[in-house]
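stuck on this one:
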Amino acid sequence: MRKHLLSFGHGYSAQALACRLLPSGWKVTGTTRDEKKIIKLRDTGIVPLLWGDACIEEAFSNVTAVLISVGPSEKGDPVFLRYRNLFEKYAADIDWVGYLSTTGVYGDFGGQWVDEETMPNPQTKRGQLRFHAEKRWQSIPGLPLHIFRLAGIYGPGRDPFSKVRNGTAKRIIKKGQVFSRIHVDDIAQVLAASLTAPNPGRIYNVCDDNPAPPQDVVGYAAELLELPLPPIVNFETAELSPMARSFYAENKKVSNTRLKSELGVTLFYPDYKIGLKKILRE
């Protein structure tokens, strides 16, 4: 059976998915804008293509699935803008298209729960751009589109341990603030489960079971390292980049019930404590 994934923007989450697919006989073609990554991708079993390469159109003619994890800009979604005609041309020949969006499209719900039936109302520019990109992809007739709204991604190399170790970590506190998270390995298993049981048009929240205050996560990382708790800093006086501050503008708990009930997924890391312990062991 032909199994070929074309991955636009073959980054952190896409690489985790490829690690699951390659051993089961999938061919994975991944795009990058960085020529220096070509050899690295090839060494991991990926067929690398530079963004804009003429071979991308050739790849479309024999893929069964496409993953899009490139973020949109003010101009729009770069994959949609450049390759919309190819998606329209091959829509009937592709079994599955996955678009990695963000739970930021929901906006602020004052710490209340949201699910996939909740009407998005993004307040940040990042969330607004993602929601616009979702709608653009949904506009292509016959495209077997699946939208995955990812919570905050963590995993090896994307964890609080290095900042705790070097003394730059802080426990930033904003009363009532919680965030949802997801380990990169759980993103990969959710995508893989969807690939085996396509349901075009479906939207899935991809997050763990335990929305939690950010200061608790940093504190637990310090506890695991047996180091002093990082200092507490009030959000209003914290020195944060505009991007980091924007994350605190929206407060909600995100439900993952659908991915469990429809995709049959049992999370490897249902909460951040299990995930951080595993990262530290490795």
Observations:
- The longest strand covers residues 96-102.
